[in-house]
Specification:
The complex is a heterodimer of chains A (111) and B (114).
Chain A lengths: L2 E5 L2 E5 L4 E8 L3 E9 L6 E6 L5 E4 L2 E5 L3 E6 L8 E9 L7 E2 L3 E6 L1
Parallel strand pairs in A: 2-11
Antiparallel strand pairs in A: 1-3, 3-8, 4-5, 4-9, 6-7, 7-8, 9-10, 9-11
Chain B lengths: L3 E3 L3 E4 L5 E7 L5 E8 L3 E8 L6 E2 L6 E7 L2 E6 L8 E8 L9 E2 L3 E5 L1
Parallel strand pairs in B: 2-11
Antiparallel strand pairs in B: 1-3, 3-8, 4-5, 4-9, 5-6, 7-8, 9-10, 9-11
The chains are: A mainly beta (111), B mainly beta (114).
Chain lengths: 111, 114
């Protein structure tokens, strides 16, 4: 069975303290891996799609990377407004096109 | 920008009532989805649709039904609401059945069943 695991479940950082969130997956044939940001009480907002191992994408203080078994979301010098839950999802080849979501990492950045 | 809208942000209903949640997307997407999100359980897929009048069950369809009469609109129906259906309901759409399908979510409806 395909599985997506995010770690840690929760992360508290001081403003400016860089860190990484992890999304590991056990799927047969990755087609795409997606990162989303979700603010409290709102719907997830799409951030990135990664297609193949070695790929990287950046947006402001966020950089997403992908290997054959996991993806990292690196947050450089975070600010309080980066506080949110970050979700990853994977889509597999040759089967259902429905992405499988991890349970998310809740990030709090203290000023 | 893709816009997905949901009919209500907050809804309070009584046990046994029939509840309609509506979702509209404005980007001509083929796929539409309904999820519920509960603390500790993450996003769980209820139903999805890849075309008008087509629907497929997700992971937790029991107690729910859906309707897609027009491409842009996808409705979730709780035939007889129960307290265990209190949750955040999220609608999403994605461009097409094949391909890379990043999803675009609506703002969510927080439903409370008393």
């Amino acid at each position: 069975e395909d599985q997506v695991t995010q770690s840690p479940e929760a992360l508290r950082l001081q403003e400016g303290e860089s860190s990484s969130l992890n999304c590991s997956y056990t799927v047969s044939g990755l087609r795409g891996l997606f990162w989303y940001r979700q603010d409290p009480g709102k719907g997830p907002e799409f951030l990135f799609t990664l297609y193949s191992a070695g790929e990287e994408k950046e947006k402001e203080r966020l950089k997403a990377t992908l290997t054959k078994k996991e993806s990292f979301l690196h947050i450089t010098a975070p600010k309080p407004e980066d506080s949110a839950t970050y979700l990853c999802a994977v889509q597999v080849s040759g089967g259902s096109y429905i992405p499988t979501f991890g349970r998310g990492t809740s990030l709090i950045v203290h000023p | 920008d893709v816009k997905v809208t949901q009919s209500s942000r907050y809804l309070v209903k009584r046990t046994g009532e029939k509840v309609f949640l509506e979702c509209v997307q404005d980007m001509d997407h083929e796929n539409m989805f309904w999820y519920r999100q509960d603390p500790g359980l993450g996003l769980r897929l209820i139903y999805f649709s890849y075309d008008v009048k087509m629907k497929e069950k997700g992971d937790i369809p029991e107690g729910y039904s859906v309707s897609r009469e027009k491409k842009e609109r996808f409705s979730l129906i709780l035939e007889s609401a129960s307290t265990n259906q209190t949750s955040m309901y999220l609608c999403a759409s994605s461009p097409r059945r094949g391909g890379y399908n990043e999803q675009f979510f609506g703002p969510g409806t927080r439903l409370t069943v008393l």
